[in-house]
Amino acid sequence: MNKQLFSYFMVFVVLLSVITIVPKTEAQKRCRKVLNPGTQCLLAKCREDCFKQLNGNGVCVETPPTSGKYTCNCFYNCGPGL
Asked: Contact, 51 vs 75, CB < 8 A?
């Protein structure tokens, strides 16, 4: 009985130490910025401008929906999440 109790105690100690040692990660907050508003989006240029300006990922988004007009939206990391 004492060996079993000791085994349970050791498992508890190991689990507790793992939980307290594992580092906490901070998620990055994602932001969006419209680049060159009012101009038609060209995907290659949008990606290049976004990467150069904000180190982000540029995508063409139809604005407003079903209009056939696309604007360059740059998604980038702008700081730690809240």
From this structure: no
